[in-house]
Amino acid sequence: xxxxxxxxxxxxxxxSAVAQRVWAHVIVGNNGxxxxxxxxxxxxxxxxxxxxxxxxxxxxxxxxxIENQVSLAxxxxxxxxxxxxxxxxxxxxxxxxxxWSAGDVRNILGWYIENYSYAKHPYTAFxxxxxxxxxxxEGSANVGDWTGIKSTYSSRGIYFIPEYTSQNPxxxxxxxxxxxxxxxxxxWPEGANDMNTNPASDPDVAWKGVNGQYMMGVSPWFFxxxxxxxxxxxxxxxxxxxxxxEHVYDIKPQFVQIVTWNDFGESHYVGPIFNxxxxxxxxxxAHWYVDNMPHDGWRALLPHYIATYxxxxxxxxxxxxxxxxxxxxYSKNAGNSNGVVCNAPWQTTYQxxxxxxxxxxxxxxxKTLPATIRVQIGNNAAQDYQATKTGxxxxxxxxxxxxxxxxxxxxxxxxxxxxxxxxxxxxxxSSDTRANYNAWVGCAPxxxxxxxxx
Length: 454
Ligand SMILES: *[C@@H]1O[C@H](CO)[C@@H](O)[C@H](O)[C@H]1NC(C)=O
Fold this sequence. Notes:
The structure is a single chain. The protein is α/β, with parallel strands linked by helices. It has two domains: 16-310, Alpha-Beta Barrel (TIM Barrel), CATH 3.20.20; 322-444, no CATH class. Helices cover 23% and strands 26% of the residues. It has eleven helices and 22 strands. The protein has helices at 2-17, 36-48, 65-80, 102-112, 145-152, 169-173, 203-208, 240-251, 287-290, 302-310, 352-355, and strands spanning 21-27, 53-58, 85-91, 120-121, 131-137, 158-160, 182-183, 214-218, 222-226, 231-235, 255-258, 280-281, 284-285, 322-327, 341-342, 359-366, 372-377, 383-386, 391-398, 403-411, 414-424, 440-444. Strands 1, 2, 3, 4, 5, 6, 7, 8 and 11 form a nine-stranded mixed sheet that branches. A four-stranded antiparallel sheet has the order 19-16-14-22, with no helix packed on it. A four-stranded antiparallel sheet has the order 18-17-20-21, with no helix packed on it. α3 links the parallel β2 and β3 (85-91). α2 (36-48) packs across α3, α4 (102-112) packs parallel to α5 and α8 (240-251) runs parallel beside α10 (302-310). The longest helix is centred in the N-terminal third of the chain and has 16 residues, at 2-17. It is globular. Mean pLDDT is 94; it is low at 1-17. 2-acetamido-2-deoxy-beta-D-glucopyranose is lined by residues 71, 74-75, 78, 115-116. It comes from Delitschia confertaspora ATCC 74209. Residues 1-19 form the signal peptide.
């Protein structure tokens, strides 16, 4: 008996030492005007959602905004003093001063990796042990820099898990003397499809197969219309936020990275809208598709998704029933597609309407059965779904008219939880007929505005 207890204690210890973790990608440049208190507020919202830390995406140059914001982020995280961690993703494509130099990377790591709030792996709470986690956004041409950078910090050790999705898994396999794991940016479906989860051709299986140290990307959406950067495209979001988490349970990656917390220009933010972070140059202005399109409701079920991931895919008992729901505000055929295409330039492109679906997407977290989930658009016919299990139940309802959206959990003939959502209308206003392919996201029970329902 004693031996068994000791074994159980040991197993628990080692399990926690290599704990799976969930990070969220923060574009530091978009927080250029943040105060320390705003960093604290974001850290607290992220923690409330069960997120373990932020991946700080930084582009060149370091001096100025990035340097200041990184310092504020670390100060805020230290002051919140709650085991929230930060690590860098050196963005080799996003900076105005070109790709990172090895010298700058070495200096920045020297300043921050010993910080208590710098993420380590493997990590034991309240001990600053483990190697410093470091990632990139692209930069595979500079992979050779990392042998020297890593050797500079060999006493701490660097756990290097770059995002080099432009190179294939075999390329990564040939560089396991430099890289410690893989992060892939392939997290949106191609064309009129959901993500490929066929084990024989599933990209997540291939990426995890490089060396088993996989950081899996999870993103809810992708739509961008920024002519200045020649970025006018979308990938199907639709059921993705729910389906991708379910796939996390199959893949069982070491880490999950949510993409993103605050990339407003690509419409995949799950953090609060920060007005000054929305692109607003004359020929790259995202206000028309981000303003009044909150995504906080995508955080509502994160504590449950994350707990399930960390519990080997077994859902924990539900204590509070919740709803999360999202949709575009008019038909995919309304408005002017404005040169936006479905898919990226390296894929076959289609009209947006070919790839996306006119539906209200709903995920309900159910405590007890039976439960009916009812979705109604305006005064049009409602549609009922019977929950099939306690825990997560995901549905979608095809658009059948216009009006405000209502989503309810009904039990014994009475609504026990009601969420309301923005109006579905005929199309964009006549003053600006560009089609907005961003999602409006809601949740219930509602808390203070903008804070999500977690
Ligand atoms: C972490 O970095 C911040 C910002 O530079 C600094 O204020 C803080 O003292 C550092 N903390 C530790 C424990 O190194």
